[in-house]
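Notes from hallway chat w/ T.B., transcribed later so I don't forget. T.B. wanted the structure written out for a chain they're using in a teaching module, and asked if we could keep both sequence and C-alpha cells in one place. Agreed to drop them here.
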Amino acid sequence: MTLQEPIDEGLRALGLAIDDDARARMRAHLDLVAKWNRVHNLTSVREPEQMVTLHLIDSLSVLPHLGNAQRIADIGTGAGFPGVPLALARPQARVTLVESSHKKCSFLEQVKAEVGIPNIEVVCERVEQWTPAEPFDAVVSRAFAELADFVLQARHLVRPGGTILAMKGVYPYEEIARLPATHRVRDVAEMRVPGLDAKRHLVVMEAV
C-alpha cells in the first residue's frame, strides 16, 4: 500500500474534499519528514504510515473550527504540523509557521521550496519575541505549551475578535482553570480523529 492510500482514506473519513494536487503535496511533505527524520529527529513518530494519522489527519481535524480565518499562525510548528496541512487544505489562506529551532526552520524552508507551497511563511523566532506586520485571525498550537503560557506568549499575535486554538489530548480541566482573566474559553471541542483511539480536544479561546 502506498502512503497516498491511507491519506485518501483519512481525508474521506474526515469528510474533506481536497483536490488531487493538494493530496499529492501532503504526501510529499510526509515523505520529506520521514527522510529528514532519519538524520535530524524532527518527530518521535518514525513510521510514515503512522505519520498520516498522528500528524496529517490529526492536524486537519482542526479545519472546521477555523471559521473564515484567512491569516493563520502555527506556533511551535516543529515539522510543520498543523500548519502545512492547513495551508494545503486552504490555499486561499496565508499560514505562518513559527518555530524557534533553526534546524526545523531549515527543514520547513525546504518543504516550502521542494513541495511548492506558496501560501506559507517560515518565521524562525521565539513567539514571545516576534511581532508580525499585522495580527492574525487565528493562532493555533499543537502541544506547544500549557494553555496559560500559550496565551501569555501568543496573545499579541491575534487581532481583536480573533481566536487562539490549542490542540490537546485529554480534557485539560486544570489548565483551563489556570487561564488568565484576560481570556475566556469559547469552546472545548472533542476531536474525532479517524484511526486514532487517544482522546483529543481543541480549546478555542478569545480575549475578553
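Follow-up for T.B.: The chain has seven helices and seven strands. Might be a good example for the class.
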